């Protein structure tokens, strides 16, 4: 479904070019929950940025359902990010001036015109409320991000990423800023969404403890995917994790 | 929709926005107050000048007056195409003169140079800018030089008093009077209307509620001696007059120079044989002033014996000076608004830096660069609008209560902010033009928007990945 072919990407630090991706090839099937692991600086986040059209490769292609998306005009790429892709970041990246509910509805507000939003806002607010209840934040609708814990913020970010029912969810170190229990909750949530909604998830992490819930684990080294899959260690729950929803 | 939501939230949650709003507000309020006061001054001055001067004046460069008699001149005007535009006309004499009078118990002699005007009071009132400035209410309704019984009694009393004392001649007794000059005491007492500032002076008091008061040097019934030059020959002519009223236009130029006497007596005194050296014309409303002036110039041809000017041409330098001052002041004050604009630029640059990660989030959610740019331009527009509206309210409130504010400031500082003896008016005149206010408001909003463009462009050009990684 989503394919990366021979991706190259180099960043410039002053006068020194820093190659990050060196001919990366990767295919993700529809509905797959993929983990990409690797050491810090291996190019995991860069790969995800290219797959999610947040950046453009220097060389190579990115295909979605066989159609090239890396060379689309900016407007088309923005539309993809709004309607087809969802993003979860390590530092949650919620907008601090907005409430939890407003943060979750933000992708819809971005994608719709003013009149479109005014016409459909009740329906979208209802969907956002349901989404937040599903991730266990039904009682935090009007709270601002500064009033939430790290785990709660990440769950709100998950709800925001999924409000528009994207086909692909990119999770860049979703548990990187969370403790073990909170991190496990988030990963369990992602697993649950993958199973019930069929969302394709690509999770980038350096934490091998959480990759057990995923369908496939691949390792990145020096800007490339190592051939073969990793044997994911069994899922270790440090604390009992209540069922989500 | 997200742009509006974010603009509104940034306005409510960013205290830095308050600084932008306050600077725009101060700039707009200052511009409105200054424009209103300058406009008030300008309008009041024009009103006063126009009120005191007739619409069109025909003057003779010669002290002897026009070659044509005034009735002939007026007849010529009435029978010409210009005649239908004329509402009233009156002949006058305007000449320089000297006025002497005695003051105080020591009978000190005061000598002042004056502008002597011989007028027909009713004709002059028809032109406008005369009877309404007289202080005697009876004369305001029915202007004349008639002396009341009280005045005549005072004249008689002062004559007897002077006769009892050693007579002190106002002129050098060794100098024989001119054989052609009329007697210094005319057979009849003629009234004279004296400019208020000639007949009085402003003294400081110790009373904080009334810091100044007017001390009268001349009272109704007092005698003055007026000396001027004859028409036929360059010889002095003089006569006594009796003060019958004061002329107070609150224009220092006129109140401290003008004295009015009966036209026919002045003609006789100067030997003018019925001639005059000035014809004042009032036009009907909505008549084109400059076109009519041009027509009158054509009618009275040469420019050698007849100089035709309208009131704006006569006061051109003064009016231009006011307009130039106003223009310069506006320019300088616009710089205040530009300073407010620079504060917006600086603050927005800080906000964009602070919001870099948020911009990255928005772009990752699919917001376009144009959308991000319009958030910040919209923010500038909102700040500008709020600041401009608050500034308008503040400016209008200050303008409305400016005289009370001036009184309080005077009390507080001990310094008279608006010295009444310097300016022409008792109160600070103001005139708020809605169009002017609208231009100021739109200008301030425009400046706010313009100065937000650069930071907005910077925000739009941020790369989403770099923005997300910003620390």
Q: What keyword list fits this structure?
A:
heterodimer; A: 245 residues; alpha/beta; Rossmann fold; six-stranded mixed β-sheet; four-stranded antiparallel β-sheet; 6 helices; B: 471 residues; alpha+beta; 2 domains; six-stranded mixed barrel; two-stranded antiparallel sheet; 17 helices; 52% helix; 18% strand
Explain what the structure shows.
The complex is a heterodimer of chains A (245) and B (471). Chain A has 245 residues and is an alpha/beta fold. Chain A has two domains: 1-82 and 167-174 and 200-230, Rossmann fold (3-Layer(aba) Sandwich), CATH 3.40.50; 85-165, no CATH class. Chain A is built from six helices and ten strands; from the N terminus they run βββαββαβαααβαβββ. In chain A, the strands form two sheets. In chain A, strands 6-7-8-3-9-10 form a six-stranded mixed beta sheet, with helices on both faces. A four-stranded antiparallel beta sheet of chain A has the order 2-1-4-5, covered by helices on one side. In chain A, a hairpin with a 2-residue loop joins strand 9 (216-221) and strand 10 (224-225). In chain A, helix 3 crosses helix 4 and helix 5 runs parallel beside helix 6 (180-197). The longest helix of chain A is centred in the middle third of the chain and has 21 residues, at 114-134. The model of chain A is unreliable at 233-245 (pLDDT under 50). By secondary structure, chain B is of the alpha+beta class. Chain B has two domains: 2-48 and 319-468, no CATH class; 54-314, no CATH class. Chain B is 52% helix and 18% strand. In chain B, the strands form two sheets. Chain B has a six-stranded mixed barrel, surrounded by four helices. A two-stranded antiparallel sheet of chain B has the order 5-6. The two termini of chain B are 28 Å apart. The mean pLDDT of chain B is 84. At the A-B interface, helix 2, helix 3 and helix 4 of A face helix 1, helix 13 and helix 17 of B.
């Amino acid at each position: 479904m989503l394919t990366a072919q021979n991706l190259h990407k180099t960043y410039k630090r002053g006068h020194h070019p820093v190659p990050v991706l060196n001919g990366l090839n990767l295919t993700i099937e529809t509905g797959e929950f993929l983990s990409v692991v690797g050491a810090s600086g291996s190019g995991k986040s860069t790969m995800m940025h290219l797959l999610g059209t947040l950046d453009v490769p220097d060389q190579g292609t990115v295909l979605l359902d066989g159609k090239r998306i890396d060379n689309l005009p900016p407007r088309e790429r923005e539309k993809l990010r709004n309607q087809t892709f969802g993003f979860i970041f390590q530092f949650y990246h919620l907008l601090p001036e907005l409430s939890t509910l407003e943060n979750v509805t933000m992708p819809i507000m971005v994608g719709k015109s003013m009149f479109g939003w005014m016409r459909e806002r009740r329906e979208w607010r209802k969907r956002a409320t349901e989404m937040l209840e599903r991730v266990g934040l039904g009682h935090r609708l009007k709270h601002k991000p500064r009033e939430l814990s790290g785990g709660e913020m990440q769950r709100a970010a998950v709800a925001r990423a999924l409000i528009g029912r994207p086909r692909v969810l990119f999770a860049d170190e979703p548990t990187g800023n969370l403790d073990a229990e909170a991190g496990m909750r988030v990963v369990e949530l992602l697993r649950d969404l993958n199973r019930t909604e069929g969302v394709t998830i690509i999770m980038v992490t350096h934490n091998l403890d959480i990759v057990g819930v995923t369908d496939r684990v691949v390792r990145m080294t020096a800007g490339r995917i190592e051939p073969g899959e990793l044997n994911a260690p069994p899922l270790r729950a440090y604390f009992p994790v209540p069922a989500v929803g | 929709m997200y742009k509006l939501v974010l603009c509104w939230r940034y306005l409510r949650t960013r205290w830095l926005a308050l600084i932008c709003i306050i600077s725009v507000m101060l700039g707009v309020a200052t511009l409105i107050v200054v424009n209103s006061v300058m406009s008030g001054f300008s309008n009041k001055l024009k009103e006063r000048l126009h009120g005191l001067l007739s619409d069109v004046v025909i003057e003779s460069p010669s002290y002897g007056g026009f070659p044509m008699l005034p009735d002939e001149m007026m007849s010529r005007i009435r029978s010409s195409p210009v005649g239908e535009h004329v509402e009233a006309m009156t002949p006058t004499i305007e000449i320089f003169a000297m006025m002497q009078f005695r003051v105080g118990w020591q009978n000190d002699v005061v000598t002042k140079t004056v502008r002597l005007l011989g007028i027909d009071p009713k004709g002059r009132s028809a032109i406008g800018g005369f009877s309404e400035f007289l202080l005697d209410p009876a004369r305001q309704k029915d202007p004349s030089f008639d002396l009341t019984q009280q005045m005549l009694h005072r004249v008689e009393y002062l004559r007897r008093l002077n006769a009892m004392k050693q007579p002190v001649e106002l002129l050098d007794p060794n100098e024989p009077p001119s054989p052609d000059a009329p007697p210094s005491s005319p057979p009849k007492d003629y009234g004279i209307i004296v400019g208020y500032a000639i007949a009085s002076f402003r003294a400081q008091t110790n009373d904080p509620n009334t810091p100044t008061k007017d001390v009268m040097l001349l009272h109704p019934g007092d005698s003055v001696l007026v000396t001027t030059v004859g028409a036929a020959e360059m010889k002095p002519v003089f006569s006594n007059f009796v003060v019958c009223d004061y002329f107070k236009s609150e224009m220092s130029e006129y109140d401290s120079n003008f004295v009015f006497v009966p036209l026919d007596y002045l003609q006789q005194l100067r030997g003018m044989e019925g001639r005059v050296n000035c014809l004042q014309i009032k036009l009907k409303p909505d008549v084109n002033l400059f076109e009519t002036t041009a027509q009158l110039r054509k009618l009275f041809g040469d420019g050698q014996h007849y100089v035709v000017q309208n009131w704006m041409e006569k006061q051109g330098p003064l009016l231009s000076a006011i307009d130039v001052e106003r223009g310069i002041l506006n320019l300088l004050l616009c710089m205040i608004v530009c300073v407010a604009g620079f504060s917006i630029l600086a603050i927005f640059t800080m906000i964009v830096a602070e919001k870099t990660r948020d911009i990255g989030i928005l772009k990752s959610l699919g917001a376009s660069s144009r959308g991000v740019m319009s958030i910040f331009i919209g923010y500038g527009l909102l700040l500008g609008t709020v600041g401009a509206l608050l500034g308008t309210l503040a400016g209008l409130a200050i303008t409305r209560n400016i005289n009370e504010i001036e009184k309080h400031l005077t009390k507080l500082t001990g310094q008279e902010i608006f010295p009444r003896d310097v300016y022409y008016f008792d109160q600070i005149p103001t005139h708020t033009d809605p169009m002017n206010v609208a231009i100021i408001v739109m200008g301030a909003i425009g400046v706010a928007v313009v100065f937000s463009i650069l930071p907005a462009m910077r925000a739009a050009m941020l790369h989403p990945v770099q923005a997300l990684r910003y620390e």
